[in-house]
Specification:
The complex is a heterotrimer of chains A (308), B (273) and C (317). By secondary structure, chain A is mainly α. Chain A contains 11 helices and no strands. Chain B is of the alpha/beta class and 273 residues long. Chain B has a domain at 23-116 and 190-268: 3-Layer(aba) Sandwich (Rossmann fold). Chain B is built from 11 helices and 10 strands. Chain B has helices spanning 2-20, 63-70, 102-108, 123-133, 139-152, 156-159, 172-184, 202-215, 228-234, 252-257, 262-268; strands at residues 23-34, 37-48, 52-56, 80-88, 93-94, 109-112, 190-194, 220-224, 237-242, 245-251. Chain C is mainly α. Chain C folds into 2 domains: 12-67; 79-316, MetI-like fold, CATH 1.10.3720. Helix content of chain C is 76%, strand content 1%. Chain C has a two-stranded antiparallel ribbon with strand order 1-2. Chain C is flat and about 90 Å long. The chains are: A mainly alpha (308), B alpha/beta (273), C mainly alpha (317). At the A-C interface, helix 1, helix 3, helix 4, helix 5 and helix 6 of A face helix 1, helix 3, helix 4, helix 5 and helix 6 of C.
């Protein structure tokens, strides 16, 4: 066998193949770098444009026709209030649904229908949720263009996220723990209440955080409901000095949220308003980065810590 | 006169034997480390040309690890380290030398795995894969070599009418023979078999054993098997390994009938394993 | 206390304790059933949501289509629902949606796939551990921020290359949308590729193939249905995106396939109407539901296709 000849030919071939290997490795790295570059450009742009505008006044002023005096007070308070309502609905419903599907649901067509629906809803564009809210919550149910409608809509929007996170955390619990709990005489609900939910709570929390981070940044559904873009007042305070000490008037009040305020300012032609928009955007990005970062860190800790 | 004749014939027989047992590859003081764990301890083994050499031993003795050193499969995973040499003849290359390209090694040796792993492609494309990697483009040439390989793997008659079918549609035994054909198509210098029949039923196993016996007339075969009887049926030389060490190596008939080492004898007679 | 005879269930103290136990057990079973029912209702919310969406969209669309023929809706080349001479050609909005989506996908699909192959087959563990969370963060940026970025950063840069580019255009919106979608495509494709068993890769490497050859000739074909479902979900995401387009592409309906022009998409139109003051029950109000229905049908088809592909992929392994 003429090894020398064959070997040189083979070596040449391998060298040319390895060149492709290297080229693709470079391409891959480049593509990743492009993503990093885009993100950095976005973040730095926001920071440069908007950071100078950030001040105590900015956070405590209402929007105004004069860009220099405009602030995000009504926007961030509105966002907080909407988030409260969103969490109020999304967390119990999502965890309950996830728990049902993992622990209780029989394998029948109805369960399949529910699961298909959840997968489907995860892919529905957010503006369609807005239309749902407009037709159903605002008009049909008569909740009007209020924080309640917005909170409900966003809750429905992030429900699939919470449900999937709940299911995956519950699935990660070994069967042995369930069997041990049942063997001690627990009922299904007792096992869920005392074992399943506590052990999966970290994973559920991760999902809730990711869902809330998404909800904070959502604009389209909230605009569609009719959240006004120029709000120079705050919704009625939840806590008052006179009885009854807690009021729920704020739930039905008109409002605005951070992303909408940013949208409003971005749409104005004056550059000064763009600066305001950048500042609001910077705050938004920081918030969502912090929340997503927290969720990722939690997930990382979970993976490392728990070894059943 | 009779004595002279018998000596002469003994010498002749010896010469035949030696001609047959020219070494194709040789492991010299081979050690292997998975991270800190020393999985192979100073192995010295000769793989004879156009013979079947079997590696036997209980689970975890390192026979698959040893086999995978030959085609540098361990290089695919981080944290592994070789010590010693594996020499390939006649060019006397050390396959484990850092300067030797693992891809080049894999171009010269082929491997058949424990669980059949056909690619998600047609039967034809599976067998042609190695040829395409080696730069073969001509459709005519590919067809010829694919047919030759499939005949060599005793699969041609069963698939010649459906070469464009997906390989997944074959039975387990057929898939394994397809993998053998795939490995055969590239004219390897040594074929490595890693427990090729442990995932197959007895009839498929018998087919493949027959195939291996046929193939050895053309190339050198190194086979790992956990089935002693298979080693006895199929191989010319057998190596018994235990806990990463080579306990005994010799001609199969000698090793099985009259093992030199007590450990070997214990394993073969089933006292443990 | 009278003597209790074992087995005599009619003895008074025994009965008292026994019936108390039975009553407790019955109430506990009832409680369990109620809890299960409550959980079941929570799970049903998703079904109610879908029903709600369908109901709302269809209810208003039915009214809409009683006044505008389906043929006109599909074929008219003008979209001017609020004019006296009103036209309702959805093609106009669809053209904006399609053009911007094509630009976005032209970026997201190649880059997303390359990143996925790189992370799955080439990148060392440390790179992957950093890259995956980073991609998640990239996908978590609010779309209004992306919109701002498109209008006030990308467009000026593009105008530096091509000064005739209008301030509102589909190109910069499409580019930024593409960047936003990259994490989706990359993450789902990478998951699909990582699910391909190692034995297939070993078979390829054992034949002397390089990493690139193995990735392209063995892993990608094996993961194909998972990768295809990633693409389809990317399409669905691009078509449904609202804010980036509302901000950077303008709100002016324009029947065009030229990305260098401004145009309104279906989603941006809905936003524009919602920003205004349309009386409930007017034809203008109904148009957003008709437009929404079109959008919904398309994304539904995409989601179903993607879901079925992913299921078939999972069955193969």
């Amino acid at each position: 066998m003429a090894y020398a000849k064959d070997l040189t030919a083979i070596r040449g071939l391998i060298a040319s193949h390895k060149r492709w290997d290297m080229i693709f490795g470079l391409c891959g790295l480049l593509a990743l770098m492009l993503g990093v570059l885009a993100f950095t450009a976005l973040f730095v742009d926001m920071a440069i444009d908007g950071f100078g505008r950030l001040s105590w006044d900015f956070f405590t002023s209402f929007p105004s026709r004069r860009p220099g005096q405009a602030g995000i007070l009504s926007a961030w308070i509105g966002s907080c209030l909407v988030m409260i309502v969103t969490a109020f609905f999304a967390v119990p419903l999502g965890v309950a649904a996830g728990l049902y599907l993992e622990e209780y649901a029989p394998k029948n067509w109805l369960t399949d229908v529910i699961e298909i629906n959840i997968t489907n809803l995860a892919g529905v564009p957010s503006i369609v949720y807005g239309l749902l809210a407009l037709g159903l919550f605002v008009y049909q149910f008569g909740f009007g263009q209020s924080i309640l409608s917005a909170g409900l809509t966003l809750a429905l929007l992030i429900l699939p996220v919470v449900i999937v996170a709940t299911r995956e955390s519950i699935r990660a619990i070994p069967q042995g723990i369930r069997e041990g709990a049942y063997a001690l005489g627990g009922t299904q609900w007792q096992v869920c209440k005392d074992h399943i939910i506590p052990y999966s709570s970290a994973g559920i929390l991760t999902g809730v955080i990711i869902g809330m981070a998404r909800a904070i940044g959502e604009t389209a559904p909230v605009i569609t409901i009719g959240a006004l873009t120029f709000i120079a007042f705050l919704p009625p305070a939840p806590v008052q000095a006179e009885p009854p000490f807690v009021s729920f008037d704020w739930v039905m009040s008109p409002f605005t949220v951070m992303p909408i305020q940013m949208f409003n300012w971005t749409s104005r032609p004056e550059a000064a308003f763009h600066q305001n928009a950048a500042a609001a955007g910077f705050v938004l990005v920081l918030m969502t980065l912090a929340m997503n970062g927290l969720a990722i860190w939690l997930r990382y800790r979970l993976r490392k810590k728990i070894k059943w | 006169m009779a004595a002279a004749v018998s000596v002469a014939s003994a010498l002749d027989a010896r010469q035949d034997e030696q001609a047959q047992s020219a070494p194709k590859a040789e492991a010299k003081s081979l050690s292997f480390y998975y991270g800190e764990f020393r999985a192979l301890k100073n192995l010295d083994l000769v793989v004879h040309e156009q013979c079947v050499t079997a590696l036997i031993g209980p689970s975890g003795c390192g026979k698959s690890t040893f086999l995978r050193c030959f085609n540098r499969m361990h290089d695919l995973y981080p944290g592994n380290r070789y010590e010693g040499e594996i020499r390939l003849y006649p060019d006397n290359t050390n396959l484990l030398a850092p300067g030797v390209d693992p891809i080049e090694v894999r171009m010269r040796l082929s491997m058949v795995f424990q669980k059949p792993n056909p690619f998600p492609k047609s039967i034809f494309e599976n067998v042609a894969y190695g040829l395409r990697v080696r730069g073969e483009r001509s459709r005519r040439s590919l067809e010829d070599r694919v047919e030759e390989a499939l005949r060599g793997a005793a699969l041609w008659d069963e698939v010649k009418d459906r070469l464009e079918d997906l390989a997944f549609n074959l039975s387990g035994g057929q898939q394994q023979r397809l993998c053998i054909a795939r490995a055969l198509a590239t004219d390897p210098e040594i074929m490595l078999f890693d427990e090729p029949t442990s995932a197959l039923d007895p009839i498929a196993t018998a087919n493949i054993e027959e195939l291996i016996t046929d193939l050895k007339t053309k190339l050198t075969i190194l086979i790992v098997t956990h089935n002693m009887q298979q080693a006895a049926r199929v191989s010319d030389y057998t190596a018994y390994m235990y806990l990463g060490e080579l306990i005994e190596f010799g001609r199969t008939d000698e090793l099985f009938i009259k093992p030199k080492n007590k450990q070997t004898e214990d394993y073969i007679t089933g006292r443990f394993g | 206390m009278s003597a209790v005879v074992p087995g005599d269930l009619t003895a008074t103290p025994q009965t008292g304790a026994m019936s108390a136990r039975l009553a407790y057990r019955r109430s506990r079973i009832l409680r369990e059933k109620l809890i299960e029912f409550a959980l079941f209702l929570a799970a049903l919310v998703s079904v109610f949501t879908t029903i709600g969406i369908v109901y709302v969209l269809v209810k208003e669309s039915v009214v809409f289509f009683s006044q505008v023929s389906l043929w006109d809706f599909l074929t008219d080349t003008q979209w001017t629902p609020l004019f006296d001479d009103a036209h309702f050609g959805i093609m106009v909005l669809l053209s904006g949606t399609l053009t911007s989506s094509l630009v976005a996908l032209a970026i997201a699909i190649p880059l997303g796939t390359i990143i996925a192959i790189y992370l799955s087959e080439f990148a060392p563990f440390s790179v992957r551990e950093v890259a995956k969370p980073f991609l998640e963060l990239l996908g978590g940026v609010p779309t209004i921020v992306y919109g701002y970025f498109a209008l006030l950063f990308v467009t000026p840069i593009l105008q530096w290359f091509y000064p005739a580019l209008p301030g509102f255009n589909l190109l910069s919106a499409g580019i930024v949308m593409g960047i936003m979608i990259i994490p989706y495509v990359a993450s789902i494709s990478e998951d699909a590729m990582r699910a391909v068993p190692m034995s297939l890769r070993e078979g390829s490497y054992a034949m002397g193939a390089t990493r690139f050859q193995t990735a392209v000739k063995v892993v990608v074909p094996a993961a194909f249905s998972g990768i295809a479902s990633a693409y389809i979900l990317g399409i669905s995401r691009a078509v449904g995106e609202t804010m980036i387009l509302a901000v950077a592409a303008g709100l002016q309906p324009n029947l065009t396939f030229n990305p260098l022009e401004p145009a309104a998409t279906i989603t941006a139109y809905i936003v524009q109407v919602a920003l205004g003051d349309l009386p409930h029950g007017s034809i203008g109000y109904q148009t957003i539901f008709a437009a929404g229905l079109t959008l919904m049908l398309f994304t539904l088809a995409c989601n179903i296709a993607g879901h079925m592909l992913r299921k078939s992929f999972r069955e193969a392994y």
